Amino acid sequence: MSAIDEIRDARLKKLELLKEKDINPYPALAKRELSLREARDTFEKLEKDGKVKWISGRIMSLRGQGAIIFITLYDGTGQFQGLLKKDVLGDEKFNFWNDVVDIGDFVELEGKFFATKRGEKTLEASDWRMLSKTLRPLPEKWHGLQDVEERFRKRYLDILMNPEIKDIFEKKAKFWDATREFLKKEGFLEVETPTLELTTGGAEARPFKTHHNDFDIDVYMRISVGELWQKRLLAAGFPRVFEIGRVYRNEGSSPEHAQEFTNMEFYAAYMDYRSGMEFTERMIKEVAQETFGTLQFKIHDLDIDLSGAWKRIPYVDTIKSKIGINVLTATEEEMKDKLDELGVKYDGENRERLTDTLWKYCRRQIAGPVWLIDVPKLVSPLSKAKPENPLLTERVQLLLAGAECTNGFSELNDPIDQAERFEAQKKLIEAGDEEAMMPDDEFVEMLEHGMPSAFGFSYGERLFAMLAGKPIREIQMFPLMKPQRE
């Protein structure tokens, strides 16, 4: 029998002791009158009033000294010390506590507030109740969960035992709150768009596929936050819309990639990529400041300062300056030779994939913050082409520590051009490219009815993870895990 099994058996016996006394080990109703944060914040008043109050929480530590027991309670809002004394509780209640209570249990104490000689804010218990009897122990206090896989599987324990992890998720909530507040302040309407689609649009990624039983059709889980739907709303007469929601991509995992994550996308009529860069630079700075209280970050051992004006670098010229190849004029064989020379593996041998792979090699060398501009049309099937060079587009991406953290562009609203680009993507799909964008004839029909000029932009968990200095799985509460093997 393992140590955990022995502990569990001992706690099951304590559970039976509670039931023998006709005590419900898991009552629905708690008598709590104030949170532990409220107890700390209003302690002086509570102590002065001398009134009896109920507080509740999980026992995080338990220190016995004969007829005196000190405990630390935690309820998610804060910690508070409880004191149980045999001469106050009486022999029966005090001894029964010792018989059935363990660290990790949820309990509530009734009593008066006072400060110990060391000044510790404390409640002296005159009564207690069991709220939830635990059958398994908490991780050891000072080390917590050490195995990464176990941490992700038992995230509830990881968060409970590691205040830094809890702080990350509180900051993440603030990040999305600040994003939502900024956009609403700027006149954007928050919308909801489908997560199940007949064709996936708005990005180049391999989708998850499922079956709709009632319609007897295959559908896909969305790979963008409703890009083609939000553009329909622009055509409907909504000038500014945004959505914050989940996105699903059936691709590999890495510190910067996950199969399920939260993204934000907005679409603003009568804004182009130039004014969009200025708008989103202001937005990101404000959101970062609101979330982290600073614009100075350490990302992958690089000092990143968001406070100044962000430099703008062109896609084609940047690749040429770093590896000596012009992706607009080079042949596919020349591209493959260059990748082989650099020792870079590549999936797919079409021009679009080769161009993208060469860029990804180069971007790793750019610390940022910089705006990447003038991205080739070949890798931007939804972006408006530059009038002065139709091979390039009015697309912009923020680079931080070698990674693309945002995506935005002047939206393509020419239905003929869009139909031609969808046709090019269709040929890529037919040639076996699983990440090419699916054509959407109904979207083209919408464009024929007319959509205003617009700027679209997105960022998500990757940007937050970069600013927080964490891999993306660390900032997901419950990342997808493979089933445990027996």
Q: Give the CATH architecture of the largest domain.
A: 2-Layer Sandwich
Q: How many domains, in number, for the residues?
A: 2
Cα-atom Rg, whole angstroms?
Answer: 29 Å
Number of discrete helical segments: 16
Q: What structural category do the secondary elements indicate?
A: alpha+beta
Through-space gap between termini: 17 Å
Give the strand content.
25-35%
User: Got a strand count?
Assistant: 21
CATH homolog superfamily of the largest domain = Bira Bifunctional Protein, Domain 2
Largest sheet: 9 strands, mixed
CATH topology value of the largest domain? BirA Bifunctional Protein, domain 2
Structure description:
The chain has helices at 3-20, 36-41, 43-49, 86-89, 91-100, 148-153, 155-161, 163-185, 227-236, 273-292, 315-323, 332-342, 351-363, 415-430, 441-449, 461-468; strands spanning 53-65, 68-74, 79-85, 106-115, 121-132, 189-190, 196-197, 209-212, 217-221, 240-248, 260-269, 296-299, 302-305, 311-314, 370-373, 385-386, 389-393, 395-400, 403-404, 406-410, 454-460. Helix 9 packs parallel to helix 15 (441-449). Helix content is 36%, strand content 26%. It folds into 2 domains: 3-138, OB fold (Dihydrolipoamide Acetyltransferase, E2P) (Beta Barrel); 157-310 and 368-475, BirA Bifunctional Protein, domain 2, CATH 3.30.930.10. The model has no long low-confidence stretch (mean pLDDT 93). The two termini are 17 Å apart. Strands 6, 10, 11, 14, 15, 18, 19, 20 and 21 form a 9-stranded mixed beta sheet that branches. A hairpin with a 2-residue loop joins strand 12 (296-299) and strand 13 (302-305). With 486 residues, the chain is of the alpha+beta class.
